[in-house]
Amino acid sequence: MKNIAVFASGSGSNAENLIRYFNENQRGAKVNLVICNKQNAGVVDRSKRLGVDCVILTKEQIQDPEALLPILGFHNTDIIVLAGFLLLIPQFLIDRYENRIVNIHPALLPKFGGKGMYGRHVHEAVINAGENETGITIHYVNGHYDSGDIIFQAQVSLSPDDTVEDVEAKVHDLEQMHFAQVIFDTFCAK
């Protein structure tokens, strides 16, 4: 059984989807830890409601190997999944979990990635660029925002009259449909 730590900063819908997918279905892995950098984020309540330990850390603690690594070690973390986590992952963590940290991005990378490109900002950029499709990208994490090797992409068509909310809903549907399965296929099905 592999242990997954989910790092999240927001509402936690993707974290909840991962927890339900793995913890309720005997899939060779379980989410046993959520790391959050925002005390009032929705993911804190979601993880507690679902019986998963949630540890709130400051940005400084996340950047400190003496603060972060013991928590991951205590939970026997094998895989780290970023689900709406907004901080850059420190190099010590990338080195320790090489090719075992993945992120989901709400666009088709390499377009619309990089620092500051998350959530609504991405969807607004997609609309402003006049794109006729968007999607999700699941990728390995390296030392730069949204530039790790791509594991999986899924696309969805856009219409010229789609609002930011429409794009967000379409992307959210793709996230819910694919994210957990890709994690399973990448780390558990082997």
How would you characterize this protein structure?
This protein is α/β, with parallel strands linked by helices. Helices cover 38% and strands 23% of the residues. The model has no long low-confidence stretch (mean pLDDT 96).
Features:
globular; seven-stranded mixed β-sheet; single chain; 7 strands; alpha/beta; 190 residues
Please give the largest β-sheet. Answer: 7 strands, mixed
The fraction of residues assigned to DSSP E strands is: 15-25%
Overall average residue pLDDT: 96
Number of strands: 7
Class computed from helices, strands and strand pairing: alpha/beta
In summary, what is this structure?
The chain has helices at 13-23, 42-49, 59-62, 65-74, 91-96, 119-128, 164-187; strands at residues 2-8, 29-36, 53-56, 79-82, 101-105, 133-140, 150-157. The protein is α/β, with parallel strands linked by helices and 190 residues long. The chain has a seven-stranded mixed sheet, covered by helices on one side.
